[in-house]
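Field reference: sequence -> structure
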Amino acid sequence: MGRRLTRKQMKKDQFVSLVDLSFHWLGQNWRQAAIGLGTVVAIALVWWGVTAVLGGRKDAAAQAMAKALDLYTAPVGSAAPAGATVKFATDTERLAEAEKAFQAVKSRYWLTPQASMADLFLARIAADRGDQAKAIKLLGEITSHRKNDPVVRLAMLDLIRLRIAKGEGVQLVPELEGMASGKDPRLPRDAALFQLARVWEREGKTDEASKFYRKLVTDFPDSPYRNEAQQRLASGN
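Structure field:
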């Protein structure tokens, strides 16, 4: 009886077969390849094989991330339902297991969206443990990439929250102003305006905070932050 192939082995064999097919085609059609058309076809075949393998890798990364998230959000102690398949006696155990799972996603599936998301949750685990300095450092590394990306956006919001709580919100003002103007894509403009208002509110500068709340209400009528901004204005911050 032949040995049973795993999904990973099947993907690998599929990739090798496609590469072999590409070079076999080139061998039989070298004249056509010499004028360029064959090269284009060969590259397309190789690219097809590579994307097939990468597609399987992304599926595996998504599954690993789902497992890590299950660990991170698992119930603890008496809060765990009787039928819970994943549960922990303490938060310390929960965070330790989740950290290992996120580290595995990061190391095994680099250059995938799941690896970036794992970085975000490793920062959140640091914050959950009370290590604000480590959390801020990790979030700063993520947000150093100035791009319109969901993970960067979430990391920026976490970073702002932690730095405001630490009394460092004013240091973020120049960056937030760039985001509010649209020059920096890491946050949508309405979100940046709201965070600017929060920074000045925390500093006790209600007039400055009101200015940004009003701009948010006026310029972004469909913003999810609009209702809260209106409430802040009505209450005098």
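Note: The chain has a mean pLDDT of 84.
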